[in-house]
Amino acid sequence: MSQQVCTRCVLPDSFPRLTFDSRGVCSICREHDKWTAGWKSRLPEQGKILDKICTKVKNKHKEFDALVPYSGGKDSSFVLYTAKKELGLNCLAYTLDNGYLSEYAKSNIDKTCRKLGVEHIYYHFNPELMNRLYALFVRKTGYPCSACMRGIAVGTVKLADLYDIPLIVSGTSFRTELPLSREMIETGSLCHVRGVLKNEPISVECKRMLSSPSMKRKLGNMLFRLTGTKGPFTYALFNLSDYIDWNYNTIFETIRKELDWTAPEEAEHMDCLIHPIQKYIQIRRFPDLDMDRLRFARLIMAGQMTREEALHKLEKPITQCPESTLNLFLKDIEMSKEEFDKYIDMGPRHLQYDLPTIMEKIMRKVLPVSNAGKY
Ligand SMILES: [Zn+2]
User: Fold this and answer.
1) How far is CA 365 from CA 191, 265, 269, 370, in A?
2) CA 8 to ligand 1 center in whole angstroms
3) Which end of the chain is more exposed for a tag (fewer CB within 10 A), N or C?
4) What residue spans define the domains of the chain?
5) Which of 242, 265, 198 is nearest to 43 (CA)?
């Protein structure tokens, strides 16, 4: 086990490049303080901006006001509830079914859409294609989840363009997301996936994985990033969590009470049956930094959990990826455990594949928000 643990959160010194100040507070805690400084006091202003966005969108009288990528998990359930019930947006919800959608997720999706009166679409990619993609991503990066992350983005842009939906609303809160270093995760960004698929024999078949939004949507998103609601508002892609408080006590209370939302106890990402594979990879690469520890650390930083609570929960042994889950996945992607472990142990290889085009480089510089160019 590590030598030093942050005195405020629970991150140990084995976290890549972590440093501590004289009080023993880690650099991630300090960065979090910096990003979120004054956040609470800006909330009323953010709320007004959100109202303006919604009014502008409703005045367009489109078939749908907003597209909500919906996994059936806690965050997207709360987004859908808020968008429909609190903001009065006419939403289309869509779920990427990667073939491993859990019964919990399906049941939550069904209940939520019925209760809210929301139209919903399941988007299935060919399971055989997905399995080949998982295998390819494991071989080339040691991390299969990029295939789904890209798949969700592709489904989102295709549906948004097909129905000409002005808003795409997601619920990723930078204040509560896991603190992950570049060594721990590969993204589903277009440039990363493009790099991985390059020169692969299946690249033609996978061409749809490289879909990006229409030019008018790209320009609309760019204008929205630059001018907010002051410019000629056409399209916007945004995180609801940038405009409202994102407190898990409120989120769980709301979705359980209003949507009858259920999940197995203490399970994160209960929507995907093979999500524990990510846990397996993380524990193999970073034995001290399992997902629960990272999650608790961030909740402490966000003021939604005490350090004592986290330490108490961490006394329990780490929940490992069930062997049956790993075996199911390996059978589907036709890979032996020895091979799989070998590719994980080769470490992350994103730098080799994250090769943005000139346009993407310019957009990253121009657009002030970190998820610019995400789709
Ligand atoms: Zn810390």
Assistant:
1) 15, 42, 32, 10
2) 5
3) N
4) 40-366
5) 242
Please give the structure tokens belonging to residue 197: 């698929």
- In the reported structure, the alpha carbon of residue 310 is separated from the centroid of ligand 1 by a whole-number distance in angstroms of 12
Please name the residue that has the structure tokens 């998820």: 371
Ligand 1 centroid to Cα of residue 10, in Å, is 6
Per-residue pLDDT of the chain (375 residues; tens, 9 = 90+): 558 999 999 999 999 999 999 999 999 999 999 988 888 899 999 999 999 999 999 999 999 999 999 999 899 999 999 999 999 999 999 999 988 998 889 999 999 999 999 999 999 888 888 999 999 999 999 999 999 999 999 999 999 999 999 999 998 877 888 888 888 888 888 888 888 888 888 767 678 888 888 889 988 988 888 888 887 888 998 899 989 989 989 999 999 999 999 887 655 667 888 989 999 999 999 998 988 999 999 999 999 999 999 999 999 888 889 999 999 999 999 999 999 999 999 988 877 777 666 766 666 665 544 433 333
Distance (angstroms) between ligand 1 centre and the Cα of 172 equals 21
The fold for domain 40-366 equals: Rossmann fold (3.40.50)
* Max Cα–Cα distance, the chain, nearest Å: 59
Query: Looking at the whole model, is its pTM more than 0.70?
Result: yes
- CA of residue 278 to ligand 1 center, whole Å: 23
Quote the distance between the C-alpha of residue 293 and its chain's center.
Answer: 18
Closest CA to 28 of 10, 40, 48, 4: 10
CB 70 within 8 A of CB 98: no
The 3-class SS string of 245-306 reads CCCHHHHHHHHHHHHCCCCCCCCCCCCECCCHHHHHHHHHHCCCCCHHHHHHHHHHHCCCCC
* 3-state secondary structure at position 168: strand
- Are the CB atoms for 80 and 91 separated by under 8 Å? yes
In the reported structure, the alpha carbon of residue 210 is separated from the centroid of ligand 1 by a whole-number distance in angstroms of: 37
Q: How far apart are CA 205 and CA 207, in angstroms?
A: 6
Within 67-214, residue ranges assigned H as helices are 74-81, 103-116, 127-141, 146-162, 190-197
Q: Please list, in sequence order, all residues whose beta carbon lies within 8 angstroms of the beta carbon of residue 313, skipping any fewer than 6 positions away.
A: 292, 296
Question: How far is it, in rounded angstroms, from Cα 366 to Cα 364?
Answer: 6
Say how many Å lie between the CA of residue 247 and the centre of ligand 1.
Answer: 19
